[in-house]
Amino acid sequence: MLSTLNFSGDQLWGSIPSSLSNLRRLTLLDLSSNNLTGQIPAALGNLSRLAFLYLPGNRLSGNIPWHLGRLRNMREMDLGSNILSGQIPSALANLTSLNSLVFSDNRLSGPIPEELGQVQTLQELVFEKNNLNGILPRSFGNLTELRYLTAYLNQLTGPVPVEFGMLSNLIGLDLSVNRLTGSVPSGVAGNLTSLTYFALWDNHITGSIPHEFGNLVNLEALLLSDNFIVGSVPPSIGNMSSLKQIAINNNSLSGELPPEFGNLENLEYLISYQNKLPGSIHQSFGKLKSMIEMRLFNNKFSGPLPPGLSNLTNLVAIQLADNQLTGHLPDLCHGKKLQVFRLFRNNFDGPVPKGLRDCSSLIYFGISKNQIEGDISEAFGVYPHLSDINLSSNRFKGRLSPNWGSCKNLTVITYGEQVNNSLNGSLPGSLGNLASLQRMLDLSMNSLSGPIPPELGKLEVLMFVNFSHNQFSGAIPVSIASMQSLTMFDVSYNFLEGSIPKGIRNASAEWFLHNKDLCGDLIGISPCNLPLADHRRKHQKIILSIGLPMFAAAISVVVACVIAFFICRKKVSQRTDDVNKRDVFSVWSFDGKMAFEDIINATDNFDEKHCIGEGSSGIVYKAELPDEQVVARRVALIRDVAQALTYLHHDVHPPIIHRDITSRNILLDAGYKGFVSDFGIARMLKPDSSNWSALAGTYGYIAPEANPGRIFYKCPNHHIPPNTCQHYYWEDGPDNYLDFLVRGGYVSPGLSSFDSAGVIASEETEVQVKKQSTVETVVYAEAMQKMNELIFLCRSILSALVVLIVVVVCVGFKK
């Protein structure tokens, strides 16, 4: 009869047939590592003699059938690495002969059955990588034969049961990556003397590290990282002579590491980063000759490193970054095994240890942001396995060695951010041989010069390039466009020129700013439609196009001055040529001297036969010039001026005060109509004011009352000389004038007497008339009085003056 059925790793597919239940004598069924799907048949519960059931490494789904609880002879059941869901059936507690129960890497949920604590034969319980929740069963303290309990990566809550301290045969306890709370029970820490592996990392454990751990002399791994543990590391840790690995990182530990650590001769991994550990690293650490990896970064360590660290010949990785360590770098590569050397962001100084030059085993080397100094071309050798090197922000100088091109495995080179570094010389083209260079090539903030090697175009997988803030010159190689993985190519702040190669993916103008003469099709970069030489000439043309017009303008001004000079010299001769064409009424061509000669000739040297009037202001002659122009025309000029001033004073709001009525400010049109012009010093009179306080005008024409400093709106009337008002009297003689006054109703024709005093008064003046006895004399005297009234209206309100003048003209005065 068939008792063993083993199809392990035979690439079976499909579901498990229920007909297997007919194999009544079957004791071992191994279907592991296949592609089986579907559910576990409940009929397997009929295999009463079955002792070993192995179904891991398939794609079985559904619930675990409770019927498996009938297999009372079952010793080992492994259902791991499937897609099983639902809860663990409590009926499995009936398997009283069970030694190993494995549910790892499924999708099981719900609590762990408390009933399993009754299976006292259990030696291995594995619940890792599921979705189990609830608390750890306290009944597990009864499983005195239990050797391995693993519940890693679930959602278990609550404290670690104190009852676990009774599991004296327990070798491995892994409760990591859950939500366990509380502190580590001292009984668990001190009574499990057989324990070799204790893991509670990534939980919510609080409290301090129990000193009872010092009793676990067989413990090889103590993993308490990623919790909320506080306090200091107990010195009793030094008693754990078998300890090979201690991980207490990512907690809130404080206090110095005890010197008793030096007793842990078998310690290989010391992981205590991301804490608050102060003080120095004790000299006793130099005795940890089994040490393989030391990770103490991001703490508060200070002082120099103990020289004894150079004795750690088995050291593969040392990471002491982000501390406050000082002194020289230790020579840690005597064992030729060092691969990781990361001491960045400290205060180390001095040169790079000579032993590191021959450390061919290096893979990661980072000492950025220290005060390391020396010639970079001499401090480093050839590292065939080097993948990542970061030397930024130190005090290196010198040139990059072409030997870097021999580091075939380099993926990252960072010499950038060289605040104090001064790398100079050209960039070796051998860097183009670094076919594995993938992540970064950063040489920014240095003094590198020369052209960018075209060999860099062979780095097709390189993603980030930063050459900014250097002195690179020449053109950007066209081969850069062949770097298909390039996501940044920063060459700003250099002396590059020429066109930016087309085809650089996701290129940004910021990558190329502040260079000598780069051009391209990017927005923010000058276009380069012409070759470089023509591009330069284009800039020269722009300069010339601005400079030449300015020069031409200056020359034009000089030429204009010269022409003006010659025009002035020829002005006299031009006047002689234009004598027959001149217009005495033209402002531009008027020559007073020659016009006077013409007037003398036209009046026969002012002969009386040309006289048409005589008054206090002089004699008026009428003459006809050679061009048939008549110049003796006072006509209605006074009326026009008076009307203009009346408009300015009474019809404009606010009123306008001209303040400079002179003959040169009165223009005549072709019909000899007068127009007031030149309002250069005119002012608007405020509505609530009748005077102005500023004195302005032409001397000889300013009103007398302006002397005290107050300017009245009547002042411009003064510019109409009173004697011009007499024109209406003298133009046609007194007879015509008297006739006008009588006909106009201004003088009474029956005036029969006249005061012998002969004094006729007005508001501001007196006119004395000689005694005469005739009626003509009396009428004449009355006419003089009216004439004076007309004259003084010139100093009064212009609106009244205009009315009188218009009436005079309209009635029949001769123009």
Task: Summarize the model shown.
17% of the residues lie in helices and 22% in strands. It is of the alpha/beta class and 815 residues long. The protein has a 21-stranded parallel β-sheet, with no helix packed on it.
Which key features would you list for this structure?
815 residues, Transferase(Phosphotransferase), domain 1, ATP binding, receptor, 53 strands, membrane, alpha/beta, 21-stranded parallel β-sheet, Leucine-rich repeat, LRR (right-handed beta-alpha superhelix), elongated, 11-stranded parallel β-sheet
Describe this structure in words.
InterPro entries: Kinase-like_dom_sf, Leu-rich_rpt, Leu-rich_rpt_typical-subtyp, LRR_dom_sf, LRR_R13L4/SHOC2-like, Plant_RL_S/T_kinase, Prot_kinase_dom, Tyr_kinase_AS. Its EC number is 2.7.11.1. With 815 residues, the protein is an alpha/beta fold. Among the domains are: 368-529, Ribonuclease Inhibitor (Leucine-rich repeat, LRR (right-handed beta-alpha superhelix), Alpha-Beta Horseshoe); 536-569; 637-721, Transferase(Phosphotransferase), domain 1 (Orthogonal Bundle), CATH 1.10.510.10; 725-793, no CATH class. Helix content is 17%, strand content 22%. The protein has a 21-stranded parallel sheet, with no helix packed on it. Strands 24-26-28-30-32-34-36-38-40-42-43 form an eleven-stranded parallel sheet. Helix 7 packs antiparallel against helix 12. Mean pLDDT is 80; it is low at 578-590, 708-715, 725-735, 750-776 and 809-815.
